[in-house]
Write a structure and sequence with these properties.
Two copies of one chain form a homodimer. Chain A is α+β, with helices and mostly antiparallel strands and 320 residues long. The first copy, chain A, folds into two domains: 9-103, Phosphorylase Kinase, domain 1 (2-Layer Sandwich), CATH 3.30.200; 115-317, Aminoglycoside 3'-phosphotransferase, Chain: A, domain 2 (Alpha-Beta Complex), CATH 3.90.1200. Helices cover 40% and strands 15% of the residues of chain A. Chain A is built from nine helices and nine strands. The first copy, chain A, has helices at residues 9-17, 62-74, 115-131, 145-155, 166-180, 220-231, 241-254, 259-285, 299-309, and strands spanning 24-29, 37-43, 46-52, 92-94, 97-103, 187-190, 199-202, 205-209, 216-219. In chain A, the strands form three sheets. A five-stranded antiparallel beta sheet of chain A has the order 1-2-3-5-4, with helices on one face. A two-stranded antiparallel sheet of chain A has the order 6-9. In chain A, α3 packs parallel to α7 and α4 (145-155) packs parallel to α8. The first copy, chain A, starts with 8 loop residues before the first helix and ends in an 11-residue tail after the last helix. Chain A binds chain B through residues 1-3, 6, 8-10, 12, 23-32, 40, 42, 47, 104-112, 200-203, 289-292, and chain B through 1-3, 6, 8-10, 12, 23-32, 40, 42, 47, 104-112, 200-202, 289-292.
Chain lengths: 320, 320
C-alpha cells in the first residue's frame, strides 16, 4: 500500500507523448499494490494504469509479464492490456524505472467473499489456463520446492519467535512435500497469486484479473490449490467446503481435471500453503523499520497448512 | 501519502446507495493527502472523490469546510463540489468516520513551478476571496498568533536539536510578530494552505483548487503571503521576484490591495513562514515510529523567514 516513486507532471507528460493516448487530464498515485508503483492516469482518450516496476520485480522477467497480459487480453481474458507506444514497445522507462501503461479495468475487489465469487474465480482461472496454452515465453516458478527450501533455510533459525515449534513443523512439512510432490501433471502458465485483491467484480460478476507479476509455468492444479487457500477459508480459519466445491466445479466445466490432478489436490494445497507461509514468515522476520507495508500474518497459513495435512482425499473439498 | 481507513466494497456500495450517482464501477485508494483518507470512486455516472475524515480534522469544523466548498463551487470557483445524498445531506458517515463525496477535478499539480503558474494562483486566490465574501459560516484561524505561541512553547525546548540557536531565533521572531502583527486589514474566508499540491493545472492553465481543510477567517493578504512562501522560492531557497510580481499583480487585477495590505505584506510573509516552520518543527520533533508520512523539513521555512525579515518594503516582491 504505497507509492514508491514520485513522478512529476513534466516527466509524465513527456512519457505520454510517446503514446497515442490523447492529452493528460489527471494522475493519482494508487495506494494499493506492494511490489510496484501504480498511478491512475486519465487522458482525453480514457483511463489507464501506469506501473513503474520497482526492484522487487526482476527486469528480465518483464517481457514475460507484459507479453502474457497482451497474449491473454487478445484471447479475451479480462486483464490489463498493455498499451503499445508509438514505437511499438509496451515496456518503456520512466524516472529510471521500467514502466508500462495498461488499460484500466473497472470493478472492485471483494473484501467479503461469498460463494458466487469462488465460482467466478474457478471459471476465470480455467479460462486463463486455456488462453495461456499457446503463449510462447515461459518462466520457471521460483517459489516452488527449491525456493521453499531456500526460504526455510533463511527463516528456520528464528521461526520459533513467531510460534514455538514452528521451525520443526515447517522442516517436517518441507521434507514430506519434497518426497510426495507430484510430477507430470498438466502444466502451463499459471497466475500463482490470484488472491481476492487481484480479482475484480461488478456486482457479483467477475470483471477481470490483475497483477500477473508472479505468473510462471507450473501445474495448473497448483494454481487452483492456491485459490482454494486464498478464497475458501473463512476469517476464523474454518474451511468453507461449499466455496471449494463451487470453485472446483466451475473450473472443471471450463477445463476438466484429470484423475491425477484431482488426487494431487491435497498435496498441492499443502505446498501452496507452505509457499505463502514461508514468504510471509520471511517478510515478518525481516521487517524494515519505517516500511510502508505491514507484513501479513504468517500464522494464518499455518492453520491452512494443518487443515490440508489432515485431508484424507478430495471429498474434503466437496468433490468426487 | 497514505490510506488510513480501508473501506470494503460492501460498505461503499451501501454508502453510495444513499446517493443518486449510478452504479459503482471502481474505487481506488489515493496515495496523496496526509490528513484524510481519499478514494477515487468511478460510477456509471462519473468520477468522484470520497473523503473519510480522520481524527486530525475536527468533526465540528466539517460543516464549515463542506459548506464552503459548496458555496464556492456555486459561485464558479473550480473546486470539489460536495454531492448531496438523497436525504439532502452532504456530510455522512462511513466506517465510523465522517465522510463526504465530492466531484472529481481533473488537472495535475505542478512539481516544477513556472512563472505562469504563480500568475494563475494569484488570480484564483483573489477570485476565491471574492466568492467567499457572502459565506455565512466562519471559523477562527487556530494557526495564527495564539496558535504559534502554543506551538513555540511545545517545541522550544528541543528546537536546537534541529538547528543550534533555532529556539532563540523563533522566540525573538514570535515576540516581534506579536508586537507588529497588523489589525483591521480586509478579512474573510482564506484557503490558508494553497501549496502547489493543492492547485491543479491543465497544461499551464489553472483548473482547480482543492483541500480546504485549513480554510478559516483571516486577512486576505495573509493568504497571499502564504502563497508567496509556497510558490515563489526556488528549490535552492532563492526568492524569485518575477514569480512574486506576477502572482501579486494577478491578484490585484481581481481584487485590489489597499495600501495598508501592501505595507503589511512583509510582516504577513514572516508570520506565514513562522506558521509553517512551527508546525513542521512540531511534526519533526514528534515523529511517530513507523508512521506512513515523512515529516517535511522545517529548515526550509527558516530560510524563508530570514528572507522576509530582511525585506525593507514591498519592492522586494517586485511591486510598488
Amino acid at each position: 500500500m504505497a507509492v514508491y516513486t514520485d513522478v512529476s507532471d513534466d516527466d509524465l507528460e513527456t512519457f505520454l507523448e510517446g503514446y497515442d493516448v490523447g492529452e493528460l487530464l489527471s494522475f493519482k498515485g494508487i495506494a494499493e499494490g506492494v511490489e510496484n508503483t501504480n498511478f491512475m492516469v486519465i487522458t482525453s482518450r480514457g483511463t489507464y494504469i501506469l506501473t513503474l516496476y520497482e526492484k522487487r520485480v526482476k527486469a528480465e522477467d518483464l517481457p514475460f509479464f507484459i507479453g502474457l497480459m497482451e497474449h491473454l487480453a487478445m484471447r479475451g481474458v479480462a486483464c490489463p492490456t498493455p498499451i503499445r507506444a508509438r514505437d511499438g514497445s509496451a515496456l518503456r522507462t520512466l524516472c529510471g524505472r521500467p514502466a508500462a501503461l495498461t488499460s484500466f479495468l473497472t470493478g472492485v475487489w471483494q473484501r467479503r467473499i461469498l460463494p458466487p465469487h469462488c465460482q467466478g474465480v474457478g471459471a476465470a482461472l480455467a479460462t486463463m489456463h486455456k488462453a495461456g496454452a499457446d503463449f510462447a515465453l515461459s518462466r520457471a516458478n521460483a517459489l516452488s520446492l527449491t525456493g521453499w527450501r531456500a526460504l526455510y533455510d533463511a527463516t528456520q533459525e528464528r521461526a520459533d519467535e513467531v510460534q514455538p515449534g514452528l521451525a520443526a513443523e515447517l522442516g517436517a512439512e518441507l521434507r514430506a512435500l519434497e518426497t510426495s510432490w507430484p510430477s507430470g501433471l498438466p502444466s502451463g502458465v499459471i497466475h500463482a497469486d490470484l488472491f481476492p485483491d487481484n480479482v475484480f467484480f461488478k456486482r457479483d460478476r467477475l470483471s477481470g484479473l490483475i497483477d500477473f507479476y508472479f505468473a510462471c509455468n507450473d501445474f495448473f492444479a497448483y494454481d487452483l490449490a492456491i485459490c482454494l487457500n486464498a478464497w475458501c477459508f473463512e476469517p476464523d480459519s474454518s474451511f468453507n467446503v461449499t466455496k471449494a466445491r463451487l470453485m472446483i466445479s466451475a473450473y472443471r466445466r471450463e477445463r476438466p481435471l484429470s484423475p491425477a490432478e484431482l488426487a494431487a489436490l491435497p498435496v498441492l494445497a499443502r505446498g501452496s500453503a507452505l509457499r505463502f507461509l514461508l514468504t510471509r514468515l520471511y517478510d515478518w522476520l525481516n521487517q524494515v523499520d519505517g516500511a510502508l507495508v505491514r507484513p501479513k500474518d504468517p500464522l494464518e497459513y499455518v492453520r491452512k497448512l494443518r487443515f490440508h495435512r489432515g485431508v484424507g482425499d478430495i471429498t474434503a473439498y466437496g468433490i468426487k
